[in-house]
Amino acid sequence: MNTADYGLHETLEVHELAAFKTLCMTKAKAMKLLVSDPELKQILLDDVEISTRQLQELSHILANSDIREMRS
Length: 72
Hints:
Blueprint: H1 8-34, H2 38-63, H3 67-71
């Protein structure tokens, strides 16, 4: 998709998703330090890994959206 394919509301929603996902990942990283159960710790580690990949994808989408172009 090029920049013309994204509406302003879509770009803002992706930004909100990225902010929420960042918060969740930060919480998972903090909680894994407090968890003693190995199975739960592995779940948190997996969540951090998946969240990192998802944030990279969201970052790519945001990089391809140019809000300045939409204002014209």
